[in-house]
Design a protein that fits this description.
By secondary structure, the protein is an all-alpha fold. The chain is built from two helices and no strands. Helix content is 43%, strand content 0%. The radius of gyration is 12 Å and the shape is elongated.
Length: 44
């Protein structure tokens, strides 16, 4: 039986921080790698 991990919930502050990093020139790939996130988390 495969156990499904609980869905991650991100705060407004965290989302805003990620958006600011992206707007300041950091690539999506770099942000995902730095925070060990899946690509589906960073959706336009």
């Amino acid at each position: 039986m495969i156990t499904k991990l609980p869905k991650q919930i991100f705060t407004y502050e965290f989302k805003n921080q990620m958006a600011q990093r992206y707007l300041n020139g950091k690539t999506k790939a770099a942000i995902l790698k730095e925070y060990d996130l899946k690509p589906s988390v960073f959706v336009n």
